[in-house]
Amino acid sequence: MRIAMCFSHFQLPRCQIHTLYGSWWKKVNNLSKKQENVSNYQLLCPGGWDSRRWIQKSLSTGAEGKNVSSRKATNLSHKVNDVSSLTHSNLNTSSVEIEEFKSVHIEQKTSDNKDISKCTTVIVFDIETTGFSRENDRIIEIALQDLSGGVNSTFQTLVNPDMIVTNQQIHGISTYMVNKSGVPRMKDLIPILVRYVRSRQKPGGQTLLIAHNGKTFDVPFLISEFNRCSYEIPSDWHFVDSMSPARELMKAEGSTLSSKSLQTLREYYKIPQTGKAHRAMADVSILALVLQKMTRDLKLTIPGLLENYSFTASEISNNSKKKKNSK
DNA sequence: GGCCCTCTTTAGGGCCTT
């Protein structure tokens, strides 16, 4: 009931949660089984996959766009207030303000890698935007996938940018699709997004969010949007740019791998294109599969990713400020 | 815009993200 109040406050009448176990999830499931992906994920998840990982329920604002026809929304009548029964119990929505998160410093964690792996939530995410400029462009779509799987392991939504979309040819997202009532604006979405991520966190654990080219695009863009809406990225969100391990892979593979782009990595690992490239959820599902292959090849674990590749939003912000001041 | 590589660091160019 408190959730309902929250969304009422946000004025998101079309925010909905529904079962997305349509052909998309089936494809991913079948694809993963065919490609022996399930066991490979154990590199990222030394404790092994949770048996719930292929349970097929996802979270969406209901504004994921018409182009995602393969993900048939089979239960649109489920309202957002049902989220309390479908996600973890800590979706406290009595206040629209984001609580100060308890920081979990990597260096304070136990040296036992298994414990780190068990308490770390790994989420792959991707954004689509109206362009490359963090100052002038806006996010128009965001998608996340918790690699531990289970109920509501994915989250996706279109975002109303309050501006004309001029790069529809890239992602297929039109002005008409996002500039209308029912599609949440970023300022309304951020609290929902933060609560979703929190709902995926393990008790006392930390979150590792992975995006391709995230260090120079997705994360700075996200920081910019949070700041524009007077929010801050939670301090216990750690990020990894999958481009970094991709560079290592390129060094190891030499000319076999010609580029570190997501599409090249997808082709390298013979992962079929599911959905339209440059739609957020399609790219997330590809990156999730690329990651499992890449971490296997590089023998990377979650502690390894945290130690060698992770960064925080504050580090990105501080670096940006230093560079501005030095100019 | 930022990272990385190299024909480099007193620099320039390619890549990657939408």
Short description:
This protein is of the alpha/beta class and 327 residues long. It has helices at residues 2-10, 23-34, 37-40, 83-86, 113-119, 168-171, 175-178, 186-200, 214-228, 243-253, 262-268, 280-297, 302-309, 313-326, and strands at 59-60, 120-129, 139-146, 154-158, 206-211, 237-241, 310-312.
Task: Supply database-style keywords.
14 helices, 3'-5'-DNA exonuclease activity, 327 residues, DNA-binding, disordered N terminus, single chain, 7-stranded mixed sheet, hydrolase, alpha/beta, Nucleotidyltransferase, domain 5
Distance between the termini: 52 Å
Query: In the CATH hierarchy, what is the superfamily of the domain at 124-319?
Result: Ribonuclease H-like superfamily/Ribonuclease H
CATH class of the domain at 124-319: Alpha Beta
- Average of per-residue pLDDT values: 70
Please state the structural category.
alpha/beta
Strand order of the largest sheet: 1-4-3-2-5-6-7
Question: In CATH terms, what is the architecture of the domain at 124-319?
Answer: 2-Layer Sandwich
SSE pattern, N- to C-terminal: HHHEHHEEEHHHEHEHHHHEH
CATH topology of the domain at 124-319: Nucleotidyltransferase, domain 5
Number of discrete helical segments: 14
Number of strands: 7
Can you describe what's shown?
This protein has a domain at 124-319: Ribonuclease H-like superfamily/Ribonuclease H (Nucleotidyltransferase, domain 5), CATH 3.30.420.10. Strands 1-4-3-2-5-6-7 form a 7-stranded mixed β-sheet, sandwiched between helices. The N and C termini lie far apart (52 Å). The chain is an alpha/beta fold. The protein has helices spanning 2-10, 23-34, 37-40, 83-86, 113-119, 168-171, 175-178, 186-200, 214-228, 243-253, 262-268, 280-297, 302-309, 313-326; strands at 59-60, 120-129, 139-146, 154-158, 206-211, 237-241, 310-312. The chain is globular and about 45 Å long. Helices cover 40% and strands 12% of the residues. The chain contains 14 helices and 7 strands. The structure holds one DNA strand of 18 nucleotides. It holds the Pfam family RNase_T. Belongs to the exonuclease superfamily. TREX family.
